[in-house]
């Protein structure tokens, strides 16, 4: 087998492996179809901005999974910037939603019930 043929085969195998990883991520990853991830819910979450009312948020995302007085994504590692920002925010209450099997949204509200911080991530 020639060197050129070996290089061609190696490049094709590398490309196939990359496509395989992408397919696995799309279907099985934390935002994958097989995990029940709802892209419509993601779009609704992304449209929520600071200053919006608690009622509007609940109407958009549904009833939260949990309510807390602390920022409540299930994992801190990798999402430290959200936890740090939450400590500095005027939020007094946080709601948590789950999208699919492993994607979470945490939104903080101030004492008037307005969004002051939000974050998303997986566990």
Write a concise keyword list for the protein shown above.
single chain; 123 residues; alpha+beta; Beta-lactamase Inhibitory Protein, Chain:B, domain 1; 2 domains; four-stranded antiparallel β-sheet; 4 strands; elongated
Describe this structure in a few short sentences.
By secondary structure, this protein is of the alpha+beta class. The chain is built from four helices and four strands; from the N terminus they run αααβαβββ.
How would you summarize the topology of this molecule?
Elements: H1 3-28, H2 39-47, H3 54-61, E1 66-68, H4 80-88, E2 93-99, E3 103-109, E4 115-121
Antiparallel strand pairs: 1-2, 2-3, 3-4
**Average pLDDT over all residues:** 85
How many domains, in number, for the residues? 2
User: Would you state the CATH class of the largest domain?
Assistant: Alpha Beta
Helix content: 40-55%
Verbal overview:
With 123 residues, the protein is an alpha+beta fold. The protein folds into two domains: 1-30; 38-121, Beta-lactamase Inhibitory Protein, Chain:B, domain 1. The protein contains four helices and four strands. A hairpin with a 5-residue loop joins strand 3 (103-109) and strand 4 (115-121). The longest helix is centred in the first third of the chain and has 26 residues, at 3-28. It is elongated. The N and C termini lie far apart (47 Å). The model has no long low-confidence stretch (mean pLDDT 85).
């Amino acid at each position: 087998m020639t060197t050129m043929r070996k290089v061609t085969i190696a490049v094709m195998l590398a490309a196939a492996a990359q496509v395989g990883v992408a397919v696995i991520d799309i279907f099985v990853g934390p935002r994958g179809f097989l995990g029940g991830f709802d892209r419509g819910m993601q779009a609704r979450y992304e449209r929520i901005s600071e200053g919006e009312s608690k009622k509007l948020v609940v109407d958009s995302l549904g009833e939260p999974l949990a309510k807390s007085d602390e920022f409540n994504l299930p994992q801190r590692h990798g999402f430290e910037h959200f936890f740090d920002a939450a400590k500095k925010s005027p939020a007094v209450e946080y709601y948590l939603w789950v999208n699919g099997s492993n994607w979470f949204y945490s939104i903080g509200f101030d004492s008037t019930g307005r969004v002051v911080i939000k974050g998303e991530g997986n566990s």
